[in-house]
Amino acid sequence: MTKLIKIKGDASFRIFFRKKFNGQSSIVVYTKKDKFKNLLVYDAINKILNKNKILAPRLYTQRYDKNFIEIEDFGDETLFKILKKDGKNKLRYFNKIIKLLIQIQSIKNKKVKNFRNQNYTIPKYNKKILINETNLFCDWYVKNNLSKLKKKRFCRNFKKIIKELTLKLKLKDNIFVHRDFHVSNLMLVNNQIGLIDSQDALIGNKAYDLASLIDDVRLETSKSFKEKIFNFYIKKQKKLDIKKFKNDFEILSVLRNLKIIGIFTRLALRDRKKKYLKLIPYTWHLVNMRINQNQVFINLKNLLSQNFKKIK
């Protein structure tokens, strides 16, 4: 007898079910909205990861016409859950994650045939995408936290400053970027780390995924711990311009977390997923921390501090 049990979802439009059949378990991913990305691209990226010996859910069956795919079940043990229970081994787990990230960043093949036998090439994470994402802060958070007059002036200046910051990025867009690389998307599977939620992967800046791991809005860590992880990553790199990398790491962390404040506001207001609102104060803390340690953010800091008390 087949049993389908609805399980906790994420911030996307996907619905997840655990399928139990003959003592075996799998995950059914269902979505009507944006199913090209959420089903077809998700599996294509997982194929690329698996080809590079990175653990990602394998496809069992697909019914694209019925809006679902059935994939490997990695269980429920996210590294987020594990680290919340076991803070003592945090550094050991993060060191393993860094080694996985370096393996992911060594991926060279950007093309794969999807399950509809079409060629899929991972797109570039260009400046335009980065700017549009960061502007979600204006579209949602600013729109709902400033007056109409203030909002118009703020967003005009904000967009100009964000564009200037993207022009100060130094590294090439030539590395596999997961784009949501943090402990909630890393699973412990038979003592190996598996990677989920990979449908947004692009080819972009080497510093991006490290910024999303270290400045993770869901898992609060100390500044000294963040520095340890950053330094561990740097030590594992043979050819890296540390100054350029650190510059890009800080810029991308700030842009990403401003985007996240916008996304979390949108999730609460549009999708009624209000649980994300409680993560916004720590996200502001991360933005504040980064913009205070680099002069490249002086214009952004002035603009934010004039309009929001969270920035000091």
Molecular structure report:
With 312 residues, the protein is α+β, with helices and mostly antiparallel strands. The chain has a single domain, classed as Aminoglycoside phosphotransferase (APH), C-terminal lobe (Aminoglycoside 3'-phosphotransferase, Chain: A, domain 2, Alpha-Beta Complex). The chain is 47% helix and 17% strand. The chain is built from eleven helices and eleven strands. The protein has helices at residues 35-51, 79-85, 90-105, 127-134, 136-145, 148-167, 208-214, 223-235, 242-269, 280-291, 298-307; strands at residues 3-7, 15-21, 24-30, 59-63, 68-72, 111-113, 119-121, 173-177, 186-189, 192-195, 202-205. Strands 1-2-3-5-4 form a five-stranded antiparallel beta sheet, covered by helices on one side. Strand 9 (186-189) and strand 10 (192-195) form a beta hairpin. The longest helix is centred in the last third of the chain and has 28 residues, at 242-269. It is globular and about 60 Å long. It starts with a strand and ends in a 5-residue tail after the last helix.
Question: What is the fold's blueprint, element by element?
Answer:
Layout: E1 3-7, E2 15-21, E3 24-30, H1 35-51, E4 59-63, E5 68-72, H2 79-85, H3 90-105, E6 111-113, E7 119-121, H4 127-134, H5 136-145, H6 148-167, E8 173-177, E9 186-189, E10 192-195, E11 202-205, H7 208-214, H8 223-235, H9 242-269, H10 280-291, H11 298-307
Antiparallel strand pairs: 1-2, 2-3, 3-5, 4-5, 6-7, 8-11, 9-10
